[in-house]
Write a structure and sequence with these properties.
This protein has about 250 residues and is an alpha/beta fold. It has helices at about 55-65, 85-90, 110-115, 130-135, 135-140, 150-160, 180-195, 210-215, 235-240; strands at about 15-25, 30-40, 45-50, 70-75, 80, 95, 170, 200-205, 215-220, 225-230. The radius of gyration is 17 Å and the shape is globular.
């Protein structure tokens, strides 16, 4: 089954990221099945699904953390399927993993500085726009990352990813463990990042309300396959929620 939107992989024009008929295996387990999608400049693409259906595997495959069996991944007009993660990062792809994975013993500032490792030394400074997007971090620069709340750690993880000046930002389950008021703030910030930076943002999620708040396009993954692909205005929330209920 597929939604009323165009088939995944068919979007033309200003697409930045293209996943084309990707198969991925964990041992004998067929994890991703002919998955295709495109992410356009200045748009948020949300990938919805239950735990264990392939959302994280898809983002990790895009970033190069899991090798694909077949298909290809393209960024702009270049195939990046065989590039290691650090080369994909240099090409403009950044990822905030599930669980955030900040350095708990490093300060907020030291965590931010780790994001600059791929940049020339002359560019390794925290731009003011980071603190404009995440003002709470400016007041906590000397606090250890492990002492921050879950929401503050997520802001730090996103800010660190933005420090690499990406063109594609991958976010894996960003609302996990975050209180509702912070989720609303995060939605506003992501839309601001999209609008001001013109990024392609690809988000894996289980929280439908958050996805509908930020998305320009909504995909649903089930058993490793994309089963719905719709522009935000055409999303049938009742139908999509059936793929999220336990």
């Amino acid at each position: 089954m597929r939604g009323n939107g165009a088939p995944a992989g068919s979007t033309q024009g200003n697409k930045v990221l293209s996943v084309e008929a990707v198969d991925l295996y964990y041992g004998a387990s067929y994890t991703l099945r002919r998955v295709s999608l495109t992410a356009k400049k200045g748009e948020v693409t949300c990938i919805l699904g239950r735990n264990g259906v392939g959302k994280t595997s898809l983002l990790r495959a895009i970033f190069g953390l899991h090798p694909i069996r077949s298909g290809r991944i393209r960024w702009e007009d270049k195939t990046i399927s065989d590039l290691p993660p650090h080369e994909r990062a240099r090409s403009g792809v950044a990822m905030v993993p599930q669980g955030r994975e900040i350095f708990p013993r490093l300060t907020v500032l030291e965590n931010l500085m780790t994001g600059f490792a791929i940049l020339p030394r002359s560019l390794r400074h925290v731009p003011d726009e980071i603190y404009t997007l995440f003002p709470v971090l400016k007041d906590m620069l000397n606090r250890r990352g492990g002492d921050l709340s879950g929401g503050q750690q997520q802001q730090l993880a996103i800010a660190r990813a933005l420090a690499t000046k990406p063109k594609v930002l991958l976010l894996d389950e960003p609302t996990e463990g975050i209180q509702p008021s912070i989720i609303k703030d995060m939605a506003r910030t992501l839309k601001r990042i999209r609008d001001e930076r013109g990024l392609s943002i690809v988000v894996s999620e289980q929280v439908l309300s958050f996805a509908l708040d930020i998305a320009d396009r909504v995909l649903v993954i089930e058993n490793g396959e994309i089963v719905r692909d719709d522009p935000r205005d055409s999303v049938d929330a009742a139908q999509v929620s059936k793929f999220l209920s336990v």
